[in-house]
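Ops channel
N.P.: pipeline sanity check, posting one input/output pair.
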């Protein structure tokens, strides 16, 4: 994939929609409520669901809680870039994983059992974040699509995550067999 040199093409039509082409820098789109995964689903916010760039607090502290960080697009390819910081005194571990397939920001929910399974399963990413440290890259542009929901969990309550998404649209918006934009 191309780098950041000439990265943001104008999206045709000026608005991001399923028929957009090109690529655009896009905010993280998390679920609004972040419940413990002890039987309660994660519910989407349908009114104010885009992160404004401020760090997102990560659930943690041994309560088996998970925070939804981003839900990928169904029609585009999202390259997700995340940085984490630990404002606590002690080092802490950050666990990242995702639940794939079909969790939209339109009132849908991510089942708590699937979130827990992803965060303790074989495909999770566990990173140690130093106490009182600055931002550390923890998710370096990993591509997602198909409404993948990315979740995070921390060993303390002092972890924050911030980042953005490079959303790449199909070369031909109406053809699902086409590749994604790579002509920057």
């Amino acid at each position: 994939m191309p780098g950041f040199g000439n990265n943001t093409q104008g999206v045709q039509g000026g608005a991001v929609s399923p028929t957009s082409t090109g690529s655009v820098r896009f905010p993280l789109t998390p679920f609004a409520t972040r419940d413990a995964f002890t039987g309660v689903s994660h519910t989407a916010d349908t009114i104010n669901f885009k992160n404004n760039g401020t760090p997102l607090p990560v659930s943690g502290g041994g309560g088996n809680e998970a925070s939804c960080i981003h839900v990928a697009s169904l029609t585009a390819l999202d390259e997700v870039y995340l940085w984490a910081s630990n404002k606590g005194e002690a080092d802490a571990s950050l666990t990242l994983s995702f639940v794939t397939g079909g969790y939209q920001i339109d009132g849908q929910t991510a089942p708590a059992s699937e979130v827990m399974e992803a965060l303790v399963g074989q495909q999770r990413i566990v990173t140690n974040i130093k106490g009182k440290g600055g931002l550390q890259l923890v998710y370096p542009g990993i591509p997602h699509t198909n409404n993948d929901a990315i979740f995070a969990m921390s060993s303390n309550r002092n972890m924050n995550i911030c980042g953005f998404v490079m959303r790449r649209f199909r070369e031909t918006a109406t053809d699902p067999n086409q590749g994604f934009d790579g002509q920057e």
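N.P.: looks fine end to end. Confidence is low (pLDDT under 50) at residues 1-14, 32-39.
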